[in-house]
Write a structure and sequence with these properties.
Layout: E1 2-7, H1 22-42, E2 47-51, E3 65-68, H2 73-80, E4 87-90, H3 99-106, E5 112-116, E6 122-127, H4 140-150, E7 155-157, H5 161-164, H6 173-179, H7 183-190, E8 193-196, E9 203-206
Parallel strand pairs: 1-2, 1-4, 2-3, 5-7
Antiparallel strand pairs: 4-6, 5-6, 8-9
Helix pairs in contact: 1-7
Length: about 210
């Protein structure tokens, strides 16, 4: 099974701009990518990072296979799908994902197995149907289910909170500090972030 991790290497995670500057967002994105790479490897796969730009810094992700493709996400991923092998696609901003979560995806016998995000996107999937193509616009989870059904393909959904939690907004950082234990959490702690429950709701603050 081929394993693809798409990664936006340029101007990453702009919705975190209120808490991280440009260089920090780049470094944090790389830490999340490293966490996902480690998880996919732990699950027994050899991931290929599908990056929008070269990965020059010496990190875990840079030491694995890297394909540079600066085209839009949908086009770049579809170009990697082949009829010869099933393909696992895991987004690079899922630092809470575990090897067990990946196993749940890959052990499914469905033609298309989907792990939805909390906002209706598709955070991970396994594609076994050669005719299936991705489309990451809008509520892509629903669109992917419909596309698979239109092909007559079987579909399974993996309901996993860890796979559903992609890190986009400042409030999402609390999830890493509460539930994470890898490179992304280590980066946040080193950068001075800590949990803040001062107003009755758990968030983060920076020392």
């Amino acid at each position: 099974m081929r394993s693809i991790i798409p990664f936006a290497a340029v101007d990453a995670k702009t919705r975190l701009a209120s808490v991280l500057d440009t260089d920090e967002r780049a470094a944090f994105s790389r830490a999340m990518l490293d966490a996902v790479v480690e998880t996919v490897i732990e699950a027994g796969h050899e991931p290929t990072v599908l990056s929008t730009a070269p990965l020059d810094e010496p990190t875990r992700a840079a030491s694995t296979s890297v394909i540079v493709d600066d085209r839009p996400l949908t086009t770049a991923v579809n170009d990697q799908l082949t009829a010869d092998s099933p393909t696992l696609v895991v987004m690079a901003d899922l630092p809470l994902a575990t090897a067990d979560d990946i196993h749940r995806l890959t052990e499914s016998n469905a033609d298309v197995t989907l792990a939805p995000g909390l906002g209706g996107g598709t955070n991970a999937m396994v594609i076994r149907e050669p005719a299936f193509r991705v489309d990451y616009h809008g509520a892509s989870y629903l669109d992917h289910r419909a596309a698979a059904t239109d092909l007559g393909a079987t579909v399974e959904t993996v309901d996993s909170r860890r796979l559903a939690t992609d890190i986009d907004e400042p409030d999402d950082l609390a999830e890493i500090l509460i539930h994470g234990d890898g490179a992304a959490r280590a980066w946040l702690v080193a950068a001075g972030f800590e949990l803040d429950a001062g107003d009755g709701r758990v968030g983060v603050r920076r020392r």
